[in-house]
Amino acid sequence: MTRNLILFIVATVAIGMATAHLEGLQGAAWGQSATTIRVAGEVRPLVQDNFDDNKKGNLWKVFADNSNCQVQEANKRLEYVSKAVEGNIFAGYVSDKWAIDPNHDFAMRVDLSYDLVTMNGGWFSFGVTPSPDQPRQRYVSVGIGCVSVFPSYWREYKDGYEIRWDFAGRGSGSALKTLYISYDSENDIVYLGDAGYGPDNAWQNLPGVIKSRWPRKPLYVFLGGNAENVKIDAGHAFADNFTVDSGVIVNPDSPTIPGPPTDPNVKPTEVTGQAMILPSVIKRQGPVQPISTFLSLPEGLLPIDVDETQPLLLLPGGAEATKRTTFLWLSGQVVIIASFDRAKLLETVTTNGETTVQIMGTLTDGRRFGGTNRLRIE
Ligand SMILES: [Ca+2]
Hints:
Order of helices and strands: HEEEEEEEEEEEEEEHEEEEEEEEEEEHEE
Largest sheet: 8 strands, antiparallel
CATH topology of the largest domain: Jelly Rolls
Helix content: under 10%
CATH architecture of the largest domain: Sandwich
Bound molecules: calcium ion
Shape: elongated
Strand content: 35-45%
Number of helices: 3
Distance between the termini: 25 Å
Number of strands: 27
């Protein structure tokens, strides 16, 4: 794309932005409705639950191996109760419609209490799993509990049939401990401990687990108890003050790869920008010119937030950009200028007249971004 054309598009769009809303588009970065979740970088903590409402909010889903154990919010905390039955039975909360992006560092903590002293084992732990429907199949966790009348800290990771664990005594002091999990994404190291975040506070380091084993999987958070033939009554094993202090929260239910959408009137994007598309009239019999697009993203994003390894698409038709340039515009907003061949659009839209087209791409945190505008086919 020539510099003159870029300047022309920029000037045209700058005028258009000042005088009109295109399709009424507004910046709409993804966020949960729960006031406790906020988009990364805006406010800390990102996610917090003190359980003081004594009822499960919309942050969580309940998972339980069977009806012999359960978690329940009571007494302003999350309590685990269990009957004494054979086997190792787990019940807990699993994050619902939110997860942590393993492509960024994160840090989270919780207060745990476990005051039984028994021969058989019982624990309360928290951690992350890439498998929200089967959270006991794959996870990294740390917790406290007791086995062989030995009150202990316990960390574990499981990946299918492979289970690795370690433990350390926690003495006869307070049953209430604050535990910390933090993650160095670049080096793929999980830090677990009871003193704080990072390597300086870690009781244990777990390298090569999260991204090496579960690449690009969003990490669901879980909090829960498990017991091996131990009767645990209410108040003996509980969690409180769960907090994600840093990280990038994603909505894992949204596809992270643009699908082959056919209806651009359906709003498929999670981050909506303003799009301009030139020419505004395409003549089927006219000269075969590329389609040029200009997309400005909501404030707060940076050029490095755009994943240029993922395709930028023009819909309908799904043509990939033949050229694309991303930069920070004078307004402080990210602007993406791109060129597309027109053939796929014309093949897909067979009827002449006004049609809505959309530009769609992906951010490095997995969210999709896009913008729509109208053009006329003749
Ligand atoms: Ca509480």
